[in-house]
Amino acid sequence: MRLTRFTDYAVRVLLHLGAKGEAQSSIAEIAELYGISRNHLMKVVQDLGHAGFVRTVRGRGGGIRLGRPAEEINLGALVRQTEDGFQLVDCSDCLVAGACTLPRVLNEATAAFLGVLDKYTLADLLGRRQDLRQIFGLAG
After folding, report:
1. Quick check: 19 and 129 in contact, CB under 8 A?
2. Which of 59, 106, 115, 118 is surrounded by the fewest CB atoms within 10 Å?
């Protein structure tokens, strides 16, 4: 299984915001930090905002911060939000589709993958918060 860049960027945004704590960040700041497209990151942040993972404030003095405590941001829920789907193969035109059990096996594997992610939160990824703050160039 391979996650999209969209999900990768979403995790990066949440890691940065979680390391930063209550202080707001800007999309430009995060995009520059990671060396990624500001426009693409805006789409990611918009999606995270609609799902409640981040809180966005527009205008002067605005920015983004976590929408809920890191302990309440489940990684499985995040991946389900940011990925379009989990169909690993398209069996619609396959000759053996009626007799093949591969889709059932792949569905079971996907459920196991998501089940593991469901056990973890953003807080688990922030276990070395001080190290992340140092990498991000954040004071203290």
Report:
1. yes
2. 59
Q: What is the CATH number of the domain that holds 36?
A: 1.10.10.10
**Domain-located, residue 47:** yes
Beta 54-57 vs 63-66: how paired, if at all? antiparallel
Vertex 128, ends 52 and 131: CA angle to 5°?
110
Q: Per residue in 39-93, pLDDT tens?
A: 999 999 999 999 999 999 888 888 999 999 999 999 999 999 999 888 888 888 8
In a domain, 54, yes or no: yes
Q: Compute CA distances 74 → 3, 10, 39, whole Å.
A: 16, 13, 26
Chain segment 82-127, per-residue pLDDT in tens = 998 888 888 888 899 889 999 899 999 999 999 999 999 999 999 9
Residue 38: alpha-carbon gap to chain centroid: 16
What token pair was written down for 121?
């939160």
DSSP character for 26? -
